[in-house]
Amino acid sequence: MYTVMVIILGYLMFTYIIVVISSGKANVNRNLMLYQERMRHLVAFMKLERIPGVTQDKAIKHFEHMWLKTHGIEAHDIFHKFHHALRQDVMLQLYENTLSVVPAFSGVEKGFTRQLATNLQILYFLKGNKIVKKNNIVSHIYIVHRGVVDVIGPDGTRFCKLQKGSMFGNIDNSPANRYMMTIVAAKHVDTLVIPTTTFYELARGYPSVRKELKTCVLRNVGYVPRFADEEVRTTRKKFYKRALFPVNYQKISVLKVPIAYLTSLLTCYQFSFTSEFIPWIFFAGLALDGVIFGVLFMSYNMEYYDDSGDIVDDITLIRSRELQELQFYLDALSILPIELFCLFTTNNRMFWHNLLHLNRLLRARHLYLFFTKKYEKLNVNMLATKLTSMISSFTLLLHVLACSWYLIGCHMECSPESWMIKANCQHSYICSIYFIVSLITTTGFGDIRPATINEIIFCSITSVAMVAIVAMFMGDVSNVVQNYSYTLSKYDTAMSIMRDYLKDGQISYPLIEKALGYAKNLWLRERGSSQPALLAEAPTSINEEIMVAAYGRHLFEAGPFFEQKFN
């Protein structure tokens, strides 16, 4: 009876741990999951409407940049539940460094900037993107928060650069105006945005602010430059040396991932199952070392993009950046031939060689870094990425445990009491894999079972640890399923609510079927929405470019009036 109770409690505890860990793992990246779902809807919309590839890439890169900046959470979404005074204090802290250098706000009371900060929204632009186009109808005022923008005149000449604290847009006291200049992001730019009407309502009691803006309007200049808006001229250092490899070579660094995987498999196998020199293992490891050395040398001498979107080609800055990365030192340690110290030993030289060769396992961190960055991509096949991550992680874990299991039973040589001798196994690696699979799947011990105290301890620790690991894998699977079914389940719920509402309203059956049929067709064609929700969050320039590419041809075909207007 006691044994039965213990088994039942064990299964209940096992189930509870799996459910808690898997559900927690599934909800960790819920915000990213929802953002990726909206991104897939946008990409599907652009493909359906045959948007040009350049425009699609621009939109995708913009929203990936937005995700890196905000992770899908806007400041106003966080602070809107605060009481008014606290919200003003917090928002002012966020933007005070920028608002304090705006020329029009010089000497103004702090009460104005407190109110202004509460009404500001932040928009992000990648380098080269147009913030405002010539002849656009502009109804907002922009303040440069980070980065630099170029002011391009009607004839295409660049007037000046606007830096942090500069203003542009509809600075006139009117709801909207046609803008006669083009504003382009010279670097990655963050701008603070406020509707013109809202701004002038706040500035009603501050004549100095209105006077500064009116001066620029009278001069027919659609911007208010900061006091020191001089073009920054970068000077080369005296000992400047350019990088050896261009920035487009960065794709080669992806080779670190398969090398890390193969090296981990090979190194563990060599340490556990080989007691003599095997040529193919030696030369395979040597080849992997050579490739990783070449990739490491290239990354140490390769251009990169800084936070502003500019290419850094100064070799001193590049190497300084690399030396700040932990993985650089791990890679450097992983290619050191410390196994050569085995030549100074007289006994068990091969064992010491294999032991010192374990420094190659430091490369395994590349697998974690690669998939972590891959998960944060918006336009990525999450199902394929998750499956690849799970397969590579599971096979690597299986291999490491099998090597450890054999090593415990046959360290240096197999003892008469070890599982290897008792099982009478002819293929040590295959038998080790077989036992670990039976241990992981909790099917119990069969013809292979632990015999020594060390083997029993190993099995006990592994069995407990595998509960959490299996739960994490289940969490990943659950995350993938939720990622692909969340929008559908939400739409099904809305359909059920609409069906019940129509029935309660005593609507005729044919009309109900017609309404439900339309809703189903809307889902099949456009995922339940005529336009992606994410498109509304895009900057005006990108939104216009996508909408013109999607629907502009219909206007061109409507007649000569629209054709002349658009041309």
List keywords for this structure.
alpha+beta; five-stranded antiparallel β-sheet; four-stranded antiparallel β-sheet; 13 strands; about 575 residues; Jelly Rolls
Our measurement of the CA-to-CA distance between the termini, rounded to an integer number of angstroms, reads 87 Å
DSSP summary, beta strand count = 13
What is the share of helical residues? 55-70%
Low-confidence stretches: 228-235
Enumerate how many helices there are, as a single number.
21
State mean pLDDT (0 to 100 scale): 81
Sheet with the most strands? 5 strands, antiparallel
Q: What is the CA-based Rg, rounded?
A: 32 Å
Widest sheet: strand ordering: 1-10-4-7-11
Q: What class, by secondary structure content?
A: alpha+beta
Q: Tell me the overall shape.
A: globular
Beta-strand share of residues: 5-15%
Multimeric state of these chains? Answer: single chain
Describe the protein in words.
- The chain has 567 residues and is an alpha+beta fold.
- Among the domains are: 83-224, Jelly Rolls; 247-451, no CATH class.
- Helix content is 58%, strand content 8%.
- It is built from 21 helices and 13 strands.
- It has helices spanning 2-28, 30-48, 53-70, 75-79, 84-99, 110-119, 196-202, 207-218, 256-273, 279-299, 315-322, 326-334, 349-356, 365-375, 382-409, 419-423, 428-440, 453-504, 509-526, 540-556, 560-566; strands at residues 121-125, 130-132, 137-138, 140-146, 149-152, 158-162, 167-169, 177-178, 182-185, 189-195, 223-224, 304-305, 311-312.
- It has a five-stranded antiparallel sheet with strand order 1-10-4-7-11. Strands 2-9-5-6 form a four-stranded antiparallel sheet.
- Helix 1 (2-28) packs across helix 18 (453-504) and helix 15 (382-409) packs across helix 17 (428-440).
- Mean pLDDT is 81; it is low at 228-235.
